[in-house]
Design a protein that fits this description.
The structure is a single chain. The protein is of the alpha/beta class and 156 residues long. It contains six helices and five strands, in the order αβααβαβαββα. A five-stranded parallel beta sheet has the order 2-1-3-4-5, with helices on both faces. Helix 3 runs parallel beside helix 6 and helix 4 runs parallel beside helix 5 (94-102). The longest helix has 16 residues, at 140-155. The two termini are 23 Å apart.
């Protein structure tokens, strides 16, 4: 029987969280976000996770800050990595920042667009200082790259 520590080290459980308005991908400002839907992104990530040997990948999209905070808090002991596109909450949600800081699960911040090439208010991420890293500007490849990095970090 494996100990809890051995089990935690051998698993690769990923939680993908998406914030406000990402449910509108595919139709929302396609010139910025492209025509790929969130369901398409999730399907791509499911296939890639299987290919990379992830044991589990789950998805949650919410337009409600509190629901995302609760998902982050509940990730402790259930997931080994979180991939987070906090969308607009990136720029002002101290609640998300504090939830990330409060748990031992590493988080990679993701953005489809390059937030540093957009409006000034998007240049600041209040969650970046408590995330392992940030990937932005590569469309759906931002998600794929984050997943690949998470799996690689879990194999170390």
């Amino acid at each position: 029987m494996a100990s809890l520590t051995e089990n935690t080290l051998s698993t690769k459980r990923i939680l993908v969280l998406n914030g406000p308005n990402l449910n509108l991908l595919g139709t929302r400002e396609p010139e910025i976000y492209g025509s790929t839907t969130l369901a398409d992104i999730n399907n791509i990530l499911k296939l890639k996770a299987k290919e990379l040997g992830a044991d589990e990948i789950n998805f949650l999209q919410s337009n409600f800050e509190g629901e995302l905070v609760e998902a982050i808090q509940k990730a402790r002991g259930r997931y080994d990595f979180i991939l987070l596109n906090a969308a607009a909450l990136t720029h002002y949600s101290i609640a998300l920042r504090d939830a990330i800081a409060a748990i031992p699960v590493p988080v990679i911040e993701i953005h489809l667009s390059n937030i540093h090439k957009r409006e000034e208010f998007r240049h600041t991420s209040v969650i970046a200082p408590v995330c392992l890293g940030q990937i932005s500007g590569f469309g759906i490849d931002s998600y794929v790259a984050a997943l690949e990095i998470a799996i690689r970090k879990l194999k170390v």
